[in-house]
Protein 1
Amino acid sequence: MVNIGIVGSGKGSNCRAILQSIRDGKLDAKATVVISDVLEAPILQIAGEFGVPNAYLPPGHFRTRLEPIVEEQLVEMLRNAGAEVVVLAGFMRVLKEPMLEAFPRQIINIHPSLLPKFPGLEAWKQALAANDKWTGVTVHYVDAQVDHGDIILQREVPILPGDTPESLHARIQAVEHELYPEALAQVFRDMGRS
Ligand code: GRF
């Protein structure tokens, strides 16, 4: 069993899917903490629902990343929780040296496109604007570049005639909820831990 820490900023549907997979015995992990940089983020309530310790981490004054001292606090919180793998689930800030050095190749992210296509925000809108017929979901290791790093698992999602940003995003999220637990299981196997 692998101890994981989950970090996110928003509604937490991927966090819920992962916690449910653990509860259902499909993923051999223990979520030891859920941390959010957003005080009212539903992801913290979801953690509470599943009995997982959770905490708000005030992010400081920067908009797209944590203040360095705050990022050190994040490292400490995750270490105190015994996290071996850090799972980003809708975390809207870019991680820098403190986290990348503390958890080398142990931080995982999910992104709503087939990377390397459409990194960045609202990737489903980028795919629609490009008139593509397919987009998808990528689970990858986090490195110093945004939405970049070795790919663990990808799955395609069709773009249907008449799709709106909302309908496409919903179809992508349904796939995310399947793919993230599967990808984590693969990571644990690669670690020789399940
Ligand atoms: C997901 O679409 C994920 O791909 C992106 O942020 C979103 C998080 O959604 N990184 P949720 O908070 O898990 O519902």
Protein 2
Amino acid sequence: MEHSEIKKENVIRIIVTAGPTQEPIDPVRFISNRSTGLFGYLIAKEALKRKHNVTLISGPTQILPPKAGKSVSIETADDLLKALKKEIKNADCLIMCAAVSDFKVKQTSAKKIKRKGQIKLELVPNKDILKELAGYKRHKLFVGFNLETSNLVKNAKLKLKDKNLDLIVANSLTKSHNPFGNNMLDIKIIDKYNNILHITHKSKSFIAYVLLDKIEELWYEIKEQGEV
Ligand code: C5P
């Protein structure tokens, strides 16, 4: 499709979540993960280039948000869920690229914790955001990401089913393949029909391009079947 000629009815309302969440310990410290946010931002950029309607919801990163589209900043996983509940009703597609912290601190301290020997932090699991949004899914495309240290495809397929996704982008973390901050990736894009696209040693922007092609294909298929 020629992007500059996209028809109004082919515009997809896309939410991209990106970056890490930060879960406070006290006013100064937090727990988080190694996400830089780059992949999510490149996906948002590619979607904007194709003239889709993009809302980028991002945790703290060093990257400037795109000038076009809408940008929302969040810190914690709970903030992200709240922002998504607000935005999801007006979206066709959710690309859940954010690296949501699996845990948060049960009791945060209002004051900076003093260094006086050993302390214990009690962590409780954050809500699974994709699962929390399941009730909004009807006729929307949900795209998830996973990072595995072993059994990549098997675990990705399980996640695709478990989280009721249309697509999953499966990424591995091994000694020879570290996706954090690295622009070249080996990934697999798996769809709900179990088709697997193997992409080897390609840039994140190239993968964003392929992913958007796949999203458009699935979305226009849903529309043609009159499911929207
Ligand atoms: O379960 P896991 O974290 O491996 O799943 C990864 C996918 O689920 C990603 O798309 C991530 O954004 C999303 N996720 C979520 N809520 C969480 C943790 C991850 O929606 N609490």
Protein 3
Amino acid sequence: MFWQKEFETMRLEDMRRLQLERLKNTVENAYESVPCYKRKFEELKVSPSDIKTLDDIKKLPFTTKADLRDGYPYGMFAVPLNKVVRIHSSSGTTGKPTVVGYTRNDMELWKNMVARILTMGGLTGDDIIQISFTYGLFTGGFGLHYGAEHVGAAVIPVSSGNTARQLLIMKDYGTTALVATPSYALHIAELMEEQGLTKNDISLKYGFFGSEPWGEAVRADIEGKLGLKATDNYGLSEVMGPGISGECLEQNGMHLNEDVYYPEIIDPDTLEVLPEGEEGELVLTTLGRETMPMIRYRTRDITRLYREKCPCGRTLIKMEKPKGRTDDMFIVNGVNIYPSQVEEALGKFENITPHYMIYLKKKGALDVMELHIETNDSIFFDEMKKQKVFLDNLTDKLASVLQTKPKVLLVMPKSIERFTGKAKRVVDERLM
Ligand code: DLL
């Protein structure tokens, strides 16, 4: 099933033609209407008329979060405020938030992009969908809400938190599709077990999880416990919100809506564009957005783009699950580590849960990476010998994957914080 088959199954040459036409319009609009772009173009001595082929995009300047902050709140808007019908913002952990706006046409576009993602992950007008993302300035709640309504599903806007109520609603209302962060889905599954419920007591079929990195072990866990097919979807507020890419039911890479977001992969250090298939930082250019045209926005997300025939029939370029953000990466004694590498390694072990925390500490001049990993009840804390063997195996495995030896502590079941939104698993105490 497709939502906009014409675009989702477009032949590559037609896609290229469409992207070029839309790129020219975007560049023209950004240059004419956003002072920041006019200045950046002039600094690089480029003008919209220099865009003759898609490859010419390399001549254009990048946009970063700092540009959005400098223009806080409305400096990057290309339309007057009376054309704006919605405002969202991304919280950001430091400094000012970044503000994003939507015209009526932007809202239409957004709804369609999310409807595409939901349709490819199995949603139809017959479903009852529970949106357990926070509603508010975060784009997740409202973004998925409008997209799901557009598909024609019955939307339950429950928002995040109050997990007992989430479960009650899921059971009594006969929810068939769930939208949440993967960490929150795990937490819902956990409470279900505690209440003695199984997947047979609920009616879930599809789960749409995104907004943070998650691996295959977590997917298997969520699918097993909730009895649904779990797909990943990706987006970011600076470029629109959810709806940029998502997995189909093949669960094999995310289809990126490239007719609306032109993707590139760059080397984050040299800023060189890398060939298709190579891993690097994702850069996105909006091809239809009115309020905030983004030219070569540096997402900081590390991923890979590739073309591959998908059994679902979609021809859109595929994007690998992002393994993390360049700014999430931490360095321990000179070794670069992404939290997702830790999660992947942990996924290979039985008897531990997907709940963990990483504490970065200093011991003299050296960095220490302390990993707190929650076990399930089947590791007998009273059987010291068995536990030691398990711990040594785990530490060795992690050391070989991460290239540095962590200090691993097994902690009691349910002792690590649960997250209702995006999980925060790294605490860097070296700077405190
Ligand atoms: O998280 C938008 C969104 C909402 C996407 C709901 C999907 C579902 P922000 O709060 O601006 O927007 O955060 C964007 O979250 O740059 C990535 O680092 C991360 N992210 C989002 N989706 C995924 C994903 C929303 N599927 C930032 N896998 C992005 C990994 C993701 N990371």
Protein 4
Amino acid sequence: MARTALITGSTSGIGAGIAEALARAGCNVVLNGLGAGGEIEALRARLAQEHGVDVRYDGADMTRPAEIAAMVERAVAAFGAVDVLVNNAGIQHVAAVDEFPVERWDAILAVNLSSAFHTTRAALPAMRRNGWGRIVNVASAHALVASPFKSAYVAAKHGLAGFTKCVALEVAQAGITVNAICPGYVRTPLVDAQIPDQARTRGISEEEVVQKIMLAGQPTKRFVGIDEVAALAVYLASDAAQSITGAVLPIDGGWTAQ
Ligand code: NAD
């Protein structure tokens, strides 16, 4: 029977890439995320048609615990379980810590960290019943190292790495693995949106942000491909990866090797 994957924040960027790769691998898919209804429906219909799987969309807001729980309950009711849970939704804000807007701090912690707790706790009972599950948390190189002006994001991603390890230990004998993927810079709408912010905060041009800030620490001097991150997620979701659990895996062109 086909497995079912729920990917938070899959209307754009890395999440959309992971959703497509899992659909290609034969999973039914629950998409989630913000965006224009027409574009989301076009993505949903295209994935279903091109890959011959059942693709649904759930618009739960990852800042709202009750909506998150209801999303997972709907998926379990429709498909029997969320076999592959990918916690990918994420937002960013760049500012000095003493100027960091309080409501941005709260939102980043909610979307980038707490939403993974809310999806995980709701998805685990059906995974346990089936004796099989895969949880893939999309963290960041910023789960392992810091950069200035990203205090909320770095705190949330370090927290997500710790959460990953803790849950991995709790479910280690239940056929469920829990891992975190830590990408370096991937050129997505989230990164594009940071370029003007960073240029303003640092008083440099947008091109200098790309070359001197973003790719400065990435020894390969190229952005990581969405397809590369998606391929790692598909591998972690496979049977072959059953002994990889509690891992916090960089895919960062060497950034965190330094
Ligand atoms: P993106 O902005 O393209 O996508 C983010 C997704 O999250 C979108 O689908 C958006 O709708 C969704 N989202 C945001 N707020 C939400 C909310 N309240 N409720 C539901 N969905 C919400 O960004 P991306 O670059 O594809 O980032 C995806 C993940 O990868 C994030 O967790 C990010 O931190 C992580 N990441 C990105 C990079 C990078 O360089 N792009 C590097 C490392 C880690």
